[in-house]
Amino acid sequence: MARKKTYREKINEVQEKIHDITPEWEEKLGKGKILIPNAIDIERIINSTKKGELLTNDIIREVLAKEKNVQLTAAIPTGVYLKYIALAAEEERKFNKKNITPYWRVLRPDGTINIKFPISTEELIHLLENEGHKLEIGKGKKPPKVISFESKIKYN
Which own/partner contact pairs does 91-98 have at CB distance under 8 Å and 24+ positions apart? Predict the structure, then answer.
């Protein structure tokens, strides 16, 4: 039976692709090219943040689009690879690796934490508070939000 791949192995296998935006999608997305990013580039952007700096999924996509000179970066693969990066970091934390990717610094576009990450909401809050961020608890099912997150975005 084949050994199950680690998330680090999965990240390293992802290949970047650039496609033309098809005519049926041009009205919604515009003319040009769309990037299907590789996970390594997403991880590089996250690793470039310092303690106290934040990113959003949309900022990562904008940075990649500028770097690769394309119209836009695909949202769904970016989100999937972001989760792989988080899972790889947690695998590495179990092996006491010191410098894991600080994926908790990536927020949703509205400043809320990403509840799809592999650790609990309480752990995410703890990591962000340890970096100096203040959070407000969400009402109902809304996740917690970093207060004044816009001023802490790295690529503003």
Answer: 91/6, 91/7, 91/8, 92/8
